[in-house]
Amino acid sequence: MPYGSLPKVRRSLLAVAFVLLAGSCLAQRRDGTYKASGGTGVAWSINDHQTLIWDGQPYLPIGIRIDGSADSVKAAKAAGVNDVIVDLPASGAGWNSVFEALNAAKMRFLIRVNSLAPMAKGFAIEPQGYRVSGISKKQTVHLELQGAKSAFVVLANKNDGQIVASSRVPVSNGQLVYDANPGAAIEHVLLVYPEMTSIEQPDFWDAMDAHRDSLLSSLKRNPAGAGLRGIVNPLGRCLSLPGREPRFVPTSSYFRMEFRNYLEDKYKNVEALLRTWSMKSSDLTVLDNQKRMTATFDQFARLIPLWTETRGVGAMLDPTTDKVYTCDQNRSKAWDDIAEVINAAGERRFRRFVPAIRSIDDVPVIQDWLGWAAPYETPRPIVDGIGMRAFGTSQSSLTDSGSRATSSILRWSSHGWLVTTDLDLGGSPDALSQLPLVLDDIGSLGAKGVFVHADTPALIKAVSEEAAKRSSDTSLSTSSPLPVFFPENAYNPAVPQRLPGGHWWLPCPADGDRIDLGSLFFAYRLKLDSGTVAIWTKKPGRYRLRFMTPRAPHFQTLDGSDPEAKVSKNAVEVTLTEFPLLITGTDELPIPEVSFIETVDRFKSMFAVGQKYWHDVDQEEFSFGDYVAGFDRNPGGCFNQLRRLYWKLGLKIAPYTWLEGERTSETNFSEVLKIPGCAASGALSLRTPVPPGAEGYYAVYPLAVKTKENQDVWMAAKIPAERRSDVSITVGGQVLRIEGEPVSLYGSGFGWYKMGTTRFAGSMSKLRVQVDTPGTSEIVIDTILVTPETFRPNGVNPPDPASFRAINIKQPTKKKGRKGSGAP
Question: pLDDT tens-digit profile of 340-364?
């Protein structure tokens, strides 16, 4: 998910992490001297082009991934491969024989720790996923909770969130059984908070020391030899890293000790903490056996919020006593404090772990990119580099998957090694022929080394041959991409790609969003550093951009050419091309006069259609007049309102139906998310491991039938590939399923899916999105489009209503004051 769309808790968490990491890593070296057992020291460094310089020479490997066995080493060498990443467990099992084989073959290698990272024990706080709705009478609930030892359950009134009952329930053989008794015959919801080992939150407390000691011991006991060039993923395999919004609260005594010290240091006294967490002192000071006591920081450090941003109840759980204390969840800052402590713990472990590794084997320690995470998403991180993971053979898929790692490392204020640790060609039949172009694309994106997921002899041989061809070319070591960043929310129209002058367009997690300028222009605003607006056009030429203060903006082209800015009273005339022109020095939005004229003309056309077919467009006409009249005084503000009004009017008169995913009339999906990169800045999410009931997971939408013609059904959504077969749309008794890959990708992984064609009867119908299986991977529904005309998806935008043929979608009725009002 893009930074700008993250909840406030997550954004503050990352901000704190950046400050902590920047302050703690000022002394981190980007050079060293590696001394293999029995050998002399070899100096290495990382230059300012993200390249590892080993013994004075650039190290630009082209190799493969292999598993940790001597046989795999011998097979790779026999195929002519000289560079590998070898997967080995932190325990040291099998290390010695693998190192002997690698050094006997005189191969160069990186160690990737592939055993699972230690994961935290505690409570999963996902009321949006672990929930059973529709409870209105006494019943026994059976719930599958694999991996849980117990669960805290809350039965709450669905309307007001009042807790009816709560208790700790044991989980036996992965099954929870609970007798729910709501009392009143109104709908209640059962919220379940499993006590389990997390699949996402690393254990930075109890198990981290053992993992660290195991890895360090393995390094000491098994000398790697002269071929070692780096260590990847020191924590081991994990799904996420510190920097994400927490969905899990550890119960480790060490976590609670750190949390307690943090709370006391921040708040000084319990009264201040009570106010910030929005809790009542009278509730908290009545403890066990009704003995009145004073609340302590130790007690607060045990408390677990029972809500997330959109779901749950306003209460805190003390899992030591299973007591629940009420609070105002809308005002409480408890999650902010928990997030900061978890993130700070992860930062400290990395800060201590990496130097400990380098004290034994002084080689670069790098971390695979796993999202916008704190260990490397900071100006001066503790790790020495980032592992890029790229997929596919097409330039678009490679740049889309790999560009974020490039973005992270190019925003460092210190040097770092960028290497593709996992290039997966996806089993493409043309992988062999495409390999040279793929390596070129990856190199252009900034990777200074590539390790291919090669699982066939033919592909291994092709990698070996390419490595031999390129072995003498060190030009990559003296160049790196020149970044032009765009906010992840503005993905489409901006996409990761090469731009003029050696520049690359790269997504980043900063706040910002796309700007709607009509059909001829594209733009986005990025709130990074002092702020930037980028604007480009379909038709290069000279254009007047309207500003209130036209002398404030500064203009920069990517190729260094002069935009020939000519300032007038209320505008700046500049040259625009199909490549972005960067505008700084102002908070105003640049509005091309051509965009304003186009929008006004299209409004007039739509008003004429509305009047012809008796749509009520009076309010839109009134607002339109106000915004047009105010354009000279405030071009950016008034034009933005005009575009919003344009799409609102379009939904009235266009022959298509546009449904916002989050505006469902009936659903048992997980929650509504706020995502600025989506249509209307919202979407409907399903993320739950709980198997659905007989009805499955569903979202129902009322649908006004505008035409009796055949209509295509499209859905804009983010659906993991492995779950696409689980999603269907039922309409008019017909079941429609996804017909192919998503097109016109936008935002943080959204795209358009063609669902099929249908025909409606009557004037009203219902559309039902159905998912019949659970899953921990998230499905997010942005919009649904039902249209009688050919639709060409264009990112987040609806079809342009002015481009559709007029269809009489509402029968004329008598309306006073209009010509022809007597018509039936």
Answer: 999 889 888 888 999 999 999 999 9
